What does this fold into?
Amino acid sequence: MSSFCREVITLQLGHYSNFVGTHWWNLQDASLSYDPESPPAEVQSDVVFREGQTLGGHVTYTPRLIAMDLKGSLRTLRQEGSLYDADKDASAVTWEGSLMMHKESPSAKNSFLEDLDKLDNGEILAEADFSSDSQPQHSGAVGVDTVNSRLARVQQGYRLESSVKVWSDFLRIHLHPRTVSVIHQYNHDGEADRLEAFGQGECLLQGALLEELEDRLHFFVEECDYLQGFQLLCDLADGFAGLGSKLTEMLQDSYGGRGILTWGLAPVSHPHSTPVKDLFHLLNCTLGTLHMSNHSSMFCPLTLRGGLGRRPGPPPEFPLLSYDPSLWYHSSSVLALALDALTAPYRLRNNSAPMWQLADTLAVSGRKVVAAYGAVPFPMMHGSSLPDALSACSDALPWKPLSACPEAADGRCYGRWATLKGFEGQKLISCPSAGIKPPTPLHSLHSGEEVLAAYIRSFSPSAPLALQLVSTPSKLTPPFPQIFSPWLGAQGFLQQQPPPPGSRAPPLSSVPIMASFQTGPTLENWLSDLHRAASTFDIRRVAPSFLSQGLEMADYQEALEQLRLLARCYRDDSSWRSSSEEDDDD
It folds into this structure.
């Protein structure tokens, strides 16, 4: 792969974060190339993957990742993975007395995991699983390219909506033995020993768990030559918010010169929720947002909820998606696609924008909380041009809120960073014939960057804007859910007409995405709403158990005050100043 890159270490804290992370890693795995003859990829995989070697001498590429979850959350996944299995011999037992072994029945695997096992073992999948144009294969070791191509042929057959219970049920990559960390003090299932409160998570990062985490971090950090920073995906609505707050503080103290980009993840709904649990979710979101943003270079909430309060609005509707927001398997896939575009700037091989540049551009004057927006997928007609696609969205920007923060109606913002990913094979400019008047000003511009910048500035003329265009699309491989409109072709571009009634639409192999970070006055309303929701009740009377988990009342009150002050950082005083200046002139 590449001889030079700025590495990133990823940390995933909590079950929903691991759902989003699993989809995201599956997307990255689909873009990996092991062919030494192929040209270098536009997105540099070495930034987030590491090269290793198995005991048998086989080269591996595994995520530079630490994933933390609770007891009972792995199901069929072995915590230590299988790449470096030493095949321990049972004869090593030296006890000479009677021995009775109790073996727990393993969890049943879904059809996708069963096929992965077959391919890992060099087996041939049944011909019935493949389309008619499948090519014969010989037995033996199966390379990653073969796994990708053969699984793609059975993509239409995977419908995992009813079988996905945990994130490992759709994980398609191997993990390093130092990746998965299980917190045994708390259970994933059941009502007892749940990690529900912010204070519980704060108290976790000490003793053996702290030592284990530091050991895992040192392992990945020490093999990096040019570490640019950490990307942290953290559940925002449960006790992992407290753990993430302590972890970002530790990273800031130990690696202060590196970037720390933190994503606060929240599902649309939680199973078996109650009014008390909803209250805990609100409090965890409030405290997690404040503390993780304090210790991060930049903090971005990422959710399809209509709000983080107890009475959120409806989830956003994406015109070209048909997804079930209540299914974690679906909602996490949408966020992972957006995350693929949002993280692309610091993963590019050429003209990349390191984490520090991204944060320095957006997190100005103490405004470390930013909002995300995404067009998933970006609506572009096959065979058309970028000016054509953007002109069709002249009334409103094509993206939807991904941080429960609606866009300002008047377009006001302090800064925006937009990324268009996946226009491969399409025209970025119009190239009108000589003597023919361009249908719109966008059609007269001479580069894709000029076209996209002019379009966005038509909504926010005075806001600072940074943007990047990435040709490579987000590549979809099994078992990504089939949630896309039948109007989309195999590459994710709009077709002139959908498939005939009764025929099956071809599975998508890739999709274009447009996503944006934004900071502006709307975040004052977002943070103020969060502060107001957490301040309207007496926590000592309504949720005394929340304070009994290690959080002091004085610390809680101080956090609310800090949140109020943080919201004021986003206040737009320009209208007040202009009116004051007019009064002075009078």
In short: Residues 275-295 form the longest helix (21 residues).
